[in-house]
Each structure stands twice: as structure tokens, then as C-alpha cells.
Amino acid sequence: MKVEQISIFLENKSGRLAEVTDLLAKSAINIRALSLADTADFGILRLILNDSEKAKKVLKENGFTVGKTEVIAVEVPDRPGGLAGILNALKGEGINVEYMYAFVQKSGQNAIIIFRFDELERAIAALQKAGVRILKGEEVYAL
Amino acid sequence: MIWNKTMECMGRKEMKAVQSERLKKITSYVYKYCPLYKTRFDTMGIRPSDIRAIGDIEHLPFTVKDDMRDSYPFGLFSAPMSKIKEIHVSSGTTGNPTVVGYTKQDIKLWAEVMARAISCAGAEPDDKIQIGYGYGLFTGGLGFHYGALEMGLTIIPASSGQTKRQLKLMNDFRPKILACTPSYALYMADEAREMGLDPRESSWEIGIFGAEPWSESMRKEIEATWNMLATDVYGLSEIIGPGVAQECQHKSGLHIWWDVFYPEVVHPETGQARDEGEVGELVITTLTKRGIPLIRYRTRDNVSITYERCSCGRTTPRISKIKGRTDDMIVVRGINVFPSQIEHVLLSIEGTQPHYQLIVDRKAGELDELEILVEVEEKIFSDEIKKMQMLEDRIKREISSILGISARVKLVEPKTLERSEGKAKRVVDKRKL
Prior knowledge:
The complex is a heterodimer.
Chain A: E1 2-11, H1 16-26, E2 31-38, E3 42-49, H2 52-61, E4 66-76, H3 82-92, E5 97-104, E6 111-117, H4 120-129, H5 137-141
Chain B: H1 5-8, H2 12-33, H3 35-44, H4 65-70, E1 86-90, E2 98-102, H5 104-121, E3 128-131, H6 139-151, E4 154-156, H7 163-173, E5 177-180, H8 182-194, E6 206-209, H9 216-226, E7 229-236, E8 241-247, E9 254-256, E10 261-266, E11 280-286, E12 297-303, E13 305-306, E14 318-319, E15 324-325, E16 330-332, E17 335-337, H10 339-350, E18 356-361, E19 369-375, H11 385-403, E20 408-412, E21 419-420, E22 423-424, E23 427-429
Parallel strand pairs in B: 3-4, 3-5, 5-6, 6-7, 18-23, 19-20
Antiparallel strand pairs in B: 1-2, 7-8, 8-9, 9-14, 10-11, 11-12, 12-15, 13-14, 16-17, 18-19, 21-22
């Protein structure tokens, strides 16, 4: 049910993002999903990878501050109202979304949304109750 | 005018006798009433009766800022609380401020030395003075107030800030004397022009500037900008507040009132006396204070001293403008800031002490700006932007609350701050003072 996400602290300096992707490339780590949140001074890069452990080690060795968080990957029906339905299910149970980002599966059939919740267990229960398909971690890493 | 001709123009031999008498008395006093001094003297095998002349002062132990930190709040006082009539604070090196207490007699002393200082700058009785130093727990505003009261000046207790109002007061009330920090004096010039005032036509004729280091070039700029005489005042709360030393109109060194504040200049590492004219750390002994007298207090200010007579007629020695510090303290907008205070704040917020750096800068005609760079280590990192921003805000708030100064906080990547021997260089001072 839970997916491991790596987050990296980046100063708003040119080239920092490229350095990260270079390091991952050198270690043959594949990025599954990515999101970059920014403020005036810094950004937080969030990555779903096929091998988080290795990535964390490599990035830390190269001086990056890395965090690991558990997030949820949810399949969104590919039709208008697909996302609305999911968000309403969460709203109904009073669950707060900290942040989210989306990507498309290779097979192109469904969109996948990564959700970060403060109350992970309650969120999982609410989504299951609403019949939303939650991907297993292994599924996401192998995409 | 010379406020106290007896003391300020006393012959050297006579002064030595006065100082010797006072040193004997103060040594007995602190030995009797201050546990720290009694212990220290006993440990060194010194008895008050060993002190017979002012030259014996070099046998006495030093007092340092940490002694004040360790005895927070009132442990270093020699008078009982019932005799302490006023309390002031100044920046401490960690979470607690440095506390000083004044008896009624101490307040009189403060008024006396401040009156000497303000007169030394060129004020005459009945002059009008605008006091632009902050009134409150810091010693600037009230120190000047007591001195001005003693002199019988007309006081405008403006305190610090509210620039437009300061200028309006100057323009409408026409005070002759301005007392504030030198950077504030320059800062007001732009504002004045915006208000349609010509700084050179201001009523201010004499400035008494201090609470932060300032250069000769800054002095020339202030004098040219405002068409006034800009003099330097020196002081520190541990000794009394402002009024320890003051430049006369010849602006060639600050007269230090050595009948009450006995100066020595020592090598900061060995504690040995430096020769006249050599730069060293200024050490001051308060010969007559009652509340919190200090024996050989290490000021951490680097100066040189001269005993040559000044053409103003005063026989008091003169210290140079402060040439630097022996520690890493900086002055930002007139407030003392110790990098260790920042450490203390960071430690209290996250239970961890990330690497940090203070960047101080001052753009032309502006006030000091302090930026604190904090390296983001795993322990304080979060995947949520809002949590990182909350951390930034929290650091900003705590710094403001503890230091009394607002600073910008910038989160940076680990290992990006310049290090020497593994320790980050704590202060980058970009100002050209």
C-alpha cells in the first residue's frame, strides 16, 4: 500500500537539479515519478525511484540532505470526474492532503497520483472504502 | 566646558593617590560582599591588605564575561537587592542576558560621568539635546538622560527609531546636540532629503555617537552631511553603560575617567601589560561602584592608550577608537550579537545544532542587515515545504525575541558554508566600517 518517496533539499542555485539526476544516472537508478516544489530560496525535490535505498546512499555520500517519506500511489479513472471522486472520498472523511503530483503509466491507460497525507492509515482506509485502487509499492517501483 | 575640573584636570601624582585609596577600598569591599571575588582572591592567596597602591592592581585577578554568564542573574552583585535601585541588561553570550544592578550611588556616578562626557563633546548648560538612543533595558537612552539631567540640559527623549519623527523634532524643536548610533545618523540623511530638508541646515551642531564601531571616514561623512561635529562616545553596560570614555572637540582619542574607571591595556593571550601606544585588550576596574563593581574586567575591545596631555586641558588618558574585538562579537544596529547566541537558539529549536553563518551587511545610507544561513541537515529536514518555512519562521521569531533584532533566515545545503578546521566560519562581515 505504501510507497517510498525520496525528498532532497536543493538551494535555488543553477545546476543543482542536474547534479542530482547525473548522480542517479551514474548509479543506474531509474526515476519513476518526480515533483519539484519551490520557494524563493530553496526547493524540495521529490522522487519515486526503482531503488530508493541505493539512491539515498549515493546522494548522501555526495553531500545532499535526503529524507524518506511514505506516500500513496492511487490509480485515477481516465474520465472527467475521476480525480474529483477520489478527493471527495477524502473530504468526506476529513482527511487533509499535504501535497500531490501525477504521472501517466507507460501503458497509457491510467493516470497515477502520488498523495502525501499526515494521517496515512486513515487515508488508506478512506480510499479503500471508496473503492479506489491503491497501487502496491512494488508495482510503482517497477513501472 | 570641563564638567569636573578637579577630577578631569588633576595632576598625575595626586590622581595616583586618589586611585590607590580607591583601589584599596574597592578590593576590601568586593572581598567582603562578593563570594566570587572572595573565592578568587583566596585561591590566589591575595588579601585586600596586600593592595597598597594602584600599581598593585596587576596582582589582582581578571573578571571575564563568562563570570557574569555563570552568575546569572544577580550572583556577581556586591550590594543586597534592597540597595539595588535599577537593573539593566545587555547581550549575553548564550540564552541569558548580562545583568547589571545600580545602587542610588551608582546612578549618581553614571549621571556624573555622562555629564562629563556630554560636556566633553562640547555641550553647555541649557543646550537642547535629542536623545536618539533606545530607552529601556539597554543602557543607551537612560545613561544619556541621567547625564543630561545632571547637566541641566533641555532633554528631548526621542529614543530610537521613527525617523520621520526624529527629523521633525529636530526641525521644529531645534536641538543643538544629537545622541544616537553613527549609522543611524547617516541613515537619517536620505530620509531628511525626502522630507525636503537640507541636512546641512539642521539644528544639530554636535553629535555624540557610539554603541557600535565606526571609522574616521564615517565620521567625515557624517560631518560633511550634517555640518556638525561628530564625536565618539564609549561605554559598556558591565562597567556603567555609555560614559566610560568620550572624545573632546579635538577628536584625538577618547578621554577615560580614570578616577572611577581605571584602564589597563593588556596582551589578550598573556594578560601582560602592553606599552603606551601598543594595541591590546582594554581592561577596566570600577573603583567606586557599589552594585556590581568589577575588578580588571576584560572588555574584549582592542585599543591603544596614550597618557600624553591633551590640548583641551584634561589630564585623563585617552584610548583610541576601538580597533576590533578579541572575540567574535559583532554589533548590529547598535546591539551586541554573539554568534553563540544564535547557536543557542538553533539548539533550543531542534535539539540539534546545525552549522550556521551570520552575514552582516550595510548598504550605503542604510541600516545594518543581518542574515543567518542555516545548513539543512537530515535531522531538521522535512519533505513538506510548509514545515521548512515554519522552521525558517521559528528561527526568525526566536532570534528576534532573544536578540532583540530582526534577521533574515536562509536555509542552505549542507557543507556549503566555509569551514576552517571543520568549524564553519561563523561571521562574514561585509561592512566597511
